[in-house]
Input
Amino acid sequence: MGFIFGPSGIPLRCKGDTIEGIECARDIGLGALEMGFVQGVRMKEDTAARVGEVARKQNIAISVHAPYYINLLSEEKEKRDASRVRIFESARIGGIASAKRIVFHPAFYGKTDRKLAIGNMIEQVGMILDEMKNSKIEGVVLAPECMGKIAQFGTIEENFSVANEFGMEKVNPCVDFGHLHARENGKLKTKADFLDKIYEIEGFGKKYLQAMHIHFEGIEYTEKGERRHLPISSKSPDFNLLAGALIEKNCSGTIISESPEIENDALEMQRIYSKIALGK
Ligand SMILES: [Zn+2]
Output
């Protein structure tokens, strides 16, 4: 139980491909790696199969970050269609590579009324899940991410409402606490603030706390939300507080570092978490 930690993408010190990145993550003592398909799903099936083999051998939990260019609430049908294809392809190739979770940035609200946004998102996600079922893609969970800009779909309430529509075996959101901090103009200042977020998630189902997929990084923000990611040392927000809250609530899952100090900060978070857990 507890958490495993990993980098978002290939560790900086590695300078190789995904397979070398997995081996490197294992060598330095991490347990997870999120593959970045952020500029497009370019990995071929045979490479994905080798990634899966190495990940299983090295015992590294793989997840995928789908392309950035996704907007499931676009007013233009072609853009919604293309967005679903990008998520589907991420799930297809990710599944071959043994990925269990496909993280994606759901949408910008645009002109969509916020009250209608959840229903529209459920419709879009349902279409992707149908396509995955038809193609027999199994064991891969879609993870809409909690987003850092107020113009983006992706509060805890929005994402977990979508998840509850399908069940956590199909949809289980990625909770990016840096993004939540930015979105709410620096709200996460105390352990109680983090506990509030965890209680909010628990309100959608206690089971979510046992299979969390978390992104964490320091963050710079404006009144519109996220501006850029910062190292953990920025304490904006403070990982110590999140670690304490997760331990207090007996949460478990995976924590991915989206800090510019990718793997060093994954290790730093692992160190902080272990220290607090042992001192419990
Ligand atoms: Zn993301």
Remarks:
- The radius of gyration is 18 Å.
- Residues 3-278 form a domain with the TIM Barrel fold (CATH 3.20.20.150).
